[in-house]
Amino acid sequence: MRLILVVCALSSAWVVDAQLLRYEGKIHFGTDGHDQQPHSKILLGSDGHDQKPHGQKLLGVDGHDQRLHSQTLLGADGHDQHPHTQTVLGGDGHDQRSHGQTLLGEDGHDQRNHKETLLGGDGHDQGHHGQTLLGADGHDMRAHSQKLLGQDGHDQRPHSQVLLGGDGHDQQPHGQKVGNGPRELSHTHMFKGFMKKYNKAYNSQSEFKKRFSIFRQNLKKIHILQQSERGTAKYGPTKFSDLTEHEFRRMLGLRPDLKPTLSQMEPAEIPSEEIPSSFDWRDHGIVTPVKNQGMCGSCWAFSVTGNVEGQWALKHKHLYSLSEQELVDCDKTDEGCNGGMPENAYEAIAKLGGLETENDYPYEAKDDQCHFNETKVKVTVNGSVELPQNEDDLARWLVKHGPISIGINANALQFYVGGVSHPLRFLCNPKSLDHGMLIVGYGVHTTKYLHRRQPYWIVKNSWGPDWGEQGYYRVYRGDGTCGVNQMATSAIVP
Ligand SMILES: *[C@@H]1O[C@H](CO)[C@@H](O)[C@H](O)[C@H]1NC(C)=O
Ligand SMILES: *[C@@H]1O[C@H](CO)[C@@H](O)[C@H](O)[C@H]1NC(C)=O
Fold it and tell me: Which-ligand-closest: CA of 384?
């Protein structure tokens, strides 16, 4: 059941996801028969709308879109979502005549009558707006203070203040003149900001171009995650935003296929005591600082050392930082930087005779020869337990016994910035576990205006403190989000 081909599963997930989003109404449907039929493929316009030619005739009730488009139509802002009163005769059949009446865009764009003919290359917005336009996505929410002179008449001057577009448009104040249209500009700007923030340098123009292109692809994934988010999480550019999905997979490393066919794990006993509404082992001195696995699929080793560190500290009142590299090099049931399973690692530690410390056996982020030295062992393990999937039981066990090693689906992690992450189920299949982490606590967030309850787990990751919330992830608790409850285990220490 847990056997998966993660790479394939994930890449196809994005295809399915966009379709499903469409059916869920997240991507815009026209009210006039436009786009009321499912497209046969993903449409990748800036708001997911109409950047590809339609493969078939769409018969709008008002004669809109009755012809096959011969080229790309850029309905980036919900423009043309309402019926025209007459045929439109532009070069691409789009809007070259002045509008005879008010057009009510769903995002508030063009909600007022233009005072004059629009004469842009695409008939759109080359003239001064006569009045404030209130876009629902933060675009054009203020009156432009001057004429707009861009190629498409749009946004070639810097805004005088920050506009926060929901679709990644204009999320940064423009620092310079923009020549290639707003999207290109804002992406270039974001990419440069990203490079600066994370000290990225590319050693050739072609590498720069490649990374910029990946970055832009990733912005689309961020958009999908953000639009469909049910919790309070923010997704955005992170230090992994210039990585392809394939490259990102090297930051993971959970390998359910390495699980022994006959699991020997004991089921854990669940304590019956009442527990507080929130709890955090970081407040009790049994959690080491956030570590960084680097470009090595060793998450499983970090998940296990984190668990054993906590178990040992709780029992022996001494917090050691323990060696992942020992597991990467010496646990032969697992595959080092190619991935592994906590369940195997507990057994490997018991067989080897224990774990050395981080200092004595330091981390290299690559596979190496085993140079385990038994005389340096500080901590031993003599068994392990498997925890139930019920998340209340997990919390009860955690409060009594310490941090829990888990497997999780990493789909929401590459672009996680902070907040309580609660992605739609089909964006984060709970059966496709591909990353190992460590639950260290839990709590409940209440949203500011609607007072919605958002119970969450506090999860330690191994991607350094400059990822997520100082290296931590908060994920929704109670409905098995991303499979957080599917592979919970712990070592037993003597
Ligand atoms: C193992 O560590 C001890 C010190 O704890 C050292 O004396 C010994 O030489 C080491 N053995 C090997 C094989 O490196
Ligand atoms: C593990 O160690 C504890 C404490 O020494 C002991 O009670 C227990 O029986 C041991 N378990 C195994 C499987 O050796």
Answer: 2
pTM exceeding 0.90 = no
User: Residues 302-320: what's their mean pLDDT?
Assistant: 98
Tokens of 207: 């590498």
Query: How would you class 430 by CB atoms within 10 Å of its CB: exposed for 0-12, middle for 13-18, buried for 19 or more?
Result: middle
* Ligand found nearest the CA of 491: 2
Q: Give the chain's end-to-end CA distance (angstroms, integer).
A: 33
**Statement: 249-491 belongs to CATH 1.10.10.10:** no
Does 383 contact ligand 2 (Cβ within 6 A)? yes
Confidence of residue 216 (pLDDT cuts 50, 70, 90): very high
**Measuring from atom 11 of ligand 1, which residue has the nearest CA?**
373
To the query of whether residue 461 is one of the catalytic residues in this protein, the response is yes
- pLDDT at position 42 over 90: no
**Phi–psi pair at 418, nearest 5 degrees:** 170, 175
Instruction: Centre a 10 Å sphere on the Cβ of residue 178 and count the other Cβ atoms it contains.
Output: 21
Q: Which residues lie below 8 Å from residue 224, measured CB to CB, with a gap of 6+?
A: 14, 17, 18, 21, 427
Name the residue with higher pLDDT: 285 or 33. Answer: 285
Task: Say which of 109, 139, 189, 299 is annotated catalytic.
Answer: 299
Task: Give Cβ neighbours of residue 109 (< 8 Å, ≥ 6 apart).
Answer: 77, 78, 79, 133, 135, 139, 140
Strand partners, 437: 406
Contact 482, 407 (CB under 8 A): no
pLDDT tens profile 431-476: 999 999 999 999 999 988 888 999 999 999 999 999 999 999 999 9
- Pairing of β 404-408 and β 435-446: antiparallel
Q: How far apart are CA 407 and CA 405, in angstroms?
A: 7
Calpha distance 443→457 (Å, rounded) = 7
Which helix (H) or strand (E) segment is 396 a member of? helix 391-401
Query: Quick check: CB of 374 below 6 Å from ligand 1?
Result: no
Handedness of CA 196, 200, 203, 209 (dihedral sign): negative
Q: Does the pLDDT value for residue 351 go beyond 60? A: yes
CB contact set of 210 (below 8 Å; sequence gap of 6+): none
**Domain range summary for the chain, segments of one domain joined by +:** 1-72, 249-491
At 169 the pLDDT is 37
Distances (CA, A) of 189 to 74, 241, 266, 376: 21, 14, 53, 51
Hey, which of 357, 373, 374, 376 would you mutate to test ligand 1's pocket, going by the most ligand atoms within 8 Å of its Cβ?
373
pLDDT at 302 over 90: yes
Q: Quote the ligand 2 centre to 311 CA distance (angstroms).
A: 14
CA distance 322 to 334: 18
